Amino acid sequence: MRIGLITPDPGHPLLAATAALLGARHEVEVLHPGAGAEAAVGAPADVYLLKARTPQALELARALERAGAPVVNSAAATERCQDRTGMAALALGAGLPFAATRTFGSLALLESAPALEWPLVVKSRRSRKDDLVVRLDGPARLRELAPRWGHEPVVTQAFAPNSGWDHKLWVVGDEVFAGVRRSELAAGGGEADPGPGRLPEGWTELALRAGGVFGLDVYGVDVLATGDGAPLIVDVNAFPGIRGQAGAPEALAALALRRAAATPR
After folding, report:
1. Mind telling me which Pfam families this protein's record contains (predicted)?
2. CA–CA distance from 227 to each of 159, 161, 231, 244 (Å)?
3. Does residue 199 fall inside a structural domain?
4. I need a labelling partner for 171 at 20 to 30 A (CA). Which of 73, 85, 144, 250 fits?
């Protein structure tokens, strides 16, 4: 089989390990997201793994889908995870325990909004690398953020009291991997924890359910354990890095082959 990787970074550890596994018996090719649809639709591969979220990457993925090639994740599913307003509406509409989310056209409109309850988590409406994610304990810092972030829409989520650790659930097909990371919103954020041990009851099923709601095959779900222990989803990501998770490359390689074999050609 031919497996295509749509990515600007084929050396990413997850992709490189997956390509090495697949390359033992199959042909693996890399397609840069900016290559243009004409570069692949003439003779598409049997399956594509879409690890890119730029407009050019989504346009390429859509062209490949129209040509009959399966893309993991689909362009539509990838795009659903880029708009945090739509993400919250979809998740809450499906009954997922997702953080209540409000949308503002700018930080200035947020600052002038009545009846705000602090602290607030403020995020860029458009999810992307190095976007805005910050906890604010009052309105004073809004003006400090304005020079860099004042031009774009933002969303807010009420700050949920929690342990200060984010539970990272990564899903590849029907396999769930997990880790714990110090929240970037907590003091001393960033350092990794060895792992969560056994996930709380029902969390694995919750992660798989989220994938069904968003139409995703490879994705991440960020979950907080709130004060009463109930899970609260604060973000869903299409095709995250899943670094350092034993078995993840094998799961991704197997998923790619299943999707290729299941698609009539």
Report:
1. RimK
2. 12, 6, 10, 29
3. yes
4. 85
Residue 41 has pLDDT above 90, yes or no: no
Same domain? For 205 and 154 the reply is: no
CA of residue 93 relative to chain centroid, distance: 19
Place of tokens 């095709």: 239
Flag whether pLDDT at 74 surpasses 80.
yes
For 10, 39, 105, 135, 178, the CA distances from 36, given in Å and listed in that order, are: 17, 6, 32, 39, 35
User: Is residue 153 domain-shared with residue 200, that is, in the same domain?
Assistant: no
In a domain, 128, yes or no: yes
Element (H, E) at 104: strand 101-104
Same-domain pairing of 222 and 179: yes
Tokens read off for 5: 């990787």
Collapsing DSSP to helix, strand or coil, 52 comes out as coil
Nearest to 235 by CA among 219, 223, 217: 223
**Is this structure's pTM higher than 0.70?**
yes
Is 225 domain-assigned?
yes
CA 252 vs CA 152, 208, 262, 263: distances in Å: 35, 16, 15, 17
Q: By three-state DSSP, how is residue 171 classified?
A: strand
- CATH for 129: 3.30.1490
- Tokens linked to 262: 């299941």
pLDDT > 70: what percent of the chain?
Answer: 91
